[in-house]
Design goal:
single chain, about 300 residues, alpha/beta, FAD/NAD(P)-binding domain, 2 domains, 5-stranded parallel sheet, 6 helices, elongated
Length: about 300
């Protein structure tokens, strides 16, 4: 029999939105818990430099998230990390989240599950495919890597890889042009250690004894393919909403995001949404923090007025 715990509010996700919601919930004297499938910080952990968060002209994403975590911890908000929810029931007055170790119940839930990286669609799998240069880039010092994607993330992460001592970066984008800021593109290609290919896709990967040796690339206009020797691949093709837990329980947009109201409420009473999982035009750390604030205050009002 699994132990059962009762709270005022369950916060699913420990990124900027979830941690902010936890801080506000604690200050409102709500008994809340954060359930995080990985570690707190979310995608912000993989951001090399954050230069648009008020109070810090420049700060490493992981450091910013660590400071947010310290603030949350100072308020004694319990956090379960690397916590995989096996069952989520958002119907009824009391919501339930069940993991392999325990059952959590509360009348209010804040969904702050964020997004997850779009995977590289190739037939060959290997352990040298990554989605975070900060997390996994160091072992590639002195080696060659492939970066997929043509936006700001791909270029920023490529510059970071070079700062770690990566010998060469090959950057490919399937569209006919790159979309990153012009200054960032100039900085990368001025390094002399990077080359870019537009109108190009990754067809497959080649491995020897499980280790990546090359990527098979295709010029989509000419139909020409070639082998690019690489030791690792870093994928920055965008993000998908992390909605698997509740996609059949709550109203979603066609793209899979939650169409939350201005007060963060959703189609289910007592269920609120915050952060990148919300359907909105801009997704930044600052907008996630704002969402977390509104969701927690709305959850407190909901509980108080029941």
């Amino acid at each position: 029999m699994k132990p059962e715990y009762h709270y005022d509010c369950l916060i699913l996700g420990g990124g900027p939105a979830g941690m902010t919601a936890a801080i506000y919930a604690a200050r409102a004297k709500l008994k809340a818990i954060v359930l995080e499938s990985n570690i707190t910080g979310g995608l912000a952990n993989s951001t090399y430099t954050v230069e648009n968060f008020p109070s810090y002209p420049s700060i490493h994403g992981m450091e910013l998230m660590d400071r947010m975590r310290q603030h949350m911890d100072s308020l004694d908000v319990p956090v379960e990390e690397v916590c995989e929810i096996e069952r989520l029931d958002l119907a009824g007055e009391v919501k339930t989240a069940e993991t392999d170790e325990a059952v959590y119940r509360a009348p209010a839930v804040i969904l702050a599950t964020g997004r997850k990286p779009v995977p590289l669609d190739v037939p060959t799998e290997c352990d040298q495919i990554h989605h975070c240069a900060i997390c996994d880039g160091a072992p590639y010092a002195g080696k060659r890597v492939l970066v997929t994607g043509g936006g700001n993330s791909a270029f920023d992460e490529s510059l970071y890889l070079l700062s770690l001592g990566v010998a060469h970066v090959t950057l490919v984008e399937i569209m006919p042009r790159f979309f990153a800021a012009a200054t960032t593109q100039e900085a990368l290609f001025a390094s002399g250690k990077a080359e870019g290919h537009t109108g190009t896709r990754v067809v497959d990967l080649e491995t020897v004894d499980g280790r990546l040796t090359a990527a098979v690339l295709e010029d989509t206009a000419a139909g020409r393919t070639w082998r690019e020797p690489v030791d690792g691949v870093f994928v920055f093709l965008g993000q998908l909403p992390n909605n698997a837990l509740f996609k059949n329980q709550i109203e979603l947009t066609k793209a899979g995001y939650i169409p939350a109201a201005p007060d963060a409420s959703t189609s289910l009473p007592g269920v609120f949404a915050a952060g990148d999982i919300v359907d909105k035009p801009f997704r930044q750390i600052t907008t996630a923090v704002a969402d977390g604030t509104v969701a927690a205050l709305s959850a407190e009002r909901f509980l108080r007025c029941r």
